[in-house]
């Protein structure tokens, strides 16, 4: 279906509306401080409603592409693609984002930088919306990097704390580095398939699998995905990101940044999936991440850390299922994706409410607060119910669909099912601990006297918890609307909706085993935690410590390189510059075998032209054999005057006069500035330095001569000449083509050059006026010179 121009603009507005709202968020906070969250939440709510309006079309199998020109010469459009997958992600981001914005107003009530926080969270939301809706891979990458930048701002929001700054930098380095690799992979896909549009790529499934560039593309895209979605061994940035305020944690872990990598793998499954590399690497990485994250969650007592590690485990589950690649696995991944977003977003907000009202989020320091926080307890119980995969919840159907892959009786699928069973049981124990331990049991005194959180902090967890159950009750309708279309988009073939209460013995038996194992682990949670902590004391090194060591080594390496390269010796700097120049001139000619032949005969020069060459040669000899620096400086200007004379003789008087002025000014300024360097002295060099510098000069001179000969032996391209000739008068209204080029066609460039010359002139004037009065007098001279230059510029503007 081809959308109208108005619909294309509307979809663009969906992506940029959160950014526009971010600009006014601080003002909204200033004028309506008590209700700013509710007001700002209208934007993501409106985006949710707009995307939801396409649900019937998408359910019928339609796919919509919205495109606006961006860089047409490079085939880059600001294009968006709406199918089952992007619709589900768009609804999760905007829907949960609505509750997060409202929640932030209550959680950070009274914070002096709440307006700034609103701006950051809305920009983060816009970045994720643009990412999941993008069709052009360059558009996708731009929004991909924006998620890294905005998450850096959010994680480091409390920038006065060193832990927050470290976590923000760590997240930026890991995800940003993966993003650079992803860019290379996306560009390589674009060149290999001849298109930058994902919608077009999806029409050729299997093309990349047979392409010679498949392996590097797969590796590059995989690194981009696993760094973003915190797969082992790049998982450590995710729990450290808990230094961010709880609204950030809830949003980042439930529906946004950490699922960007999962979205990328799901989106490119038809393009890169179905190969041995895909079906082996992804399940192994995902399975290891699932078990590692679930075990690390049980080791924690900080409830946010427990949820962070279970998020890491859930991301491993999703990667493992996408890697499996079967219809059942893909449908299970979509179910688990939505179920996880509902219960994990709710549980994070519940933990934030507990922390906000009791002053602690340590699970060992809070108990028996159900009476004081009944609605919070209700949200926690329903969310944990779905997290455990108990019947009629959405988590139950997600878990059943995962175990359904074991019906094939293939050992690979059975292995995935067993790994999923263990991971689900461990996550069930962690979720049960958060839902039961703080609310039930004997009352423990807490730092703050608890009471129910404000409405803004209750709406999100309560509604998300109810949705987790409602989606299970109406599972078939939700399957038609969301799960079947999204799975079809990932699988690239129609995935029928068979969701419902089916008492299949294999999935049901595995579910019962999950509940039994999860209940046992929860019962012995203290023992399990003690064992895991003993192991941690023995195995002290990990990727988190490795990151610190890497950054320390990087800084030391940069310091070493700086001391070698930036040594402060101008002579060596110039040698390096001319060596690089020689390499740049000779290497292409040698490698391509395009060394120009020397001319057979010398050009027929007139008497005056031989005279100019003689002047240049005499000036060169004067520079080389000059006894003092002053003689060398003055003689250097002779070369420029010779060039100016050549311009005059060849019919370019404007260039000749310009060259005369430039050379005169250069010699005068150089002589004035170098008065401090004793111009009457001679530079004494040892013989080795003379040979080195003279040889380098000859090599560069010969190379540039050869380069000019190569240029002169090519056909003259007069395209620009003809263009300027045709357009100079009718468009720029000038007959002097050189002036027209400088003033009209290169106006910005000319303005920049004038600005540079003016700045350099001010600095030179200040240096000339410095006397022996010391630094203060020199600074004063600079200030006076700048003031005079500014005053002169104002007078010139007034006169004009």
From TrEMBL:
Membrane topology: Multi-pass membrane protein
Membrane-spanning ranges: 6-25, 37-59, 79-103, 115-134, 140-157, 169-193, 213-238, 250-268, 280-299, 306-324, 330-354, 375-394, 414-436, 457-478, 506-525, 572-595, 607-625, 630-650, 656-674, 695-712, 750-768
Domain MrpA C-terminal/MbhD: 615-677
InterPro entries with a match to the protein in the record: CPA3_Na-H_Antiporter_A, MrpA_C/MbhD, MrpA_C/MbhE, ND/Mrp_TM, Nuo/plastoQ_OxRdtase_6_NuoJ, Proton_antipo_N
The NADH-Ubiquinone oxidoreductase (complex I) chain 5 N-terminal domain, residue ranges: 71-118
Keyword tags: Antiport, Cell membrane, Ion transport, Membrane, Transmembrane, Transmembrane helix, Transport
Domain NADH:quinone oxidoreductase/Mrp antiporter transmembrane: 134-423
The keyword tRNA-binding belongs to this UniProt entry's keyword annotation: no
Domain of life, source organism: Bacteria
Residue intervals of the MrpA C-terminal/MbhE domain: 692-769
Keyword Ion transport part of the UniProt annotation: yes
Subcellular location: Cell membrane; Membrane
Protein name (Swiss-Prot/TrEMBL): Na(+)/H(+) antiporter subunit A
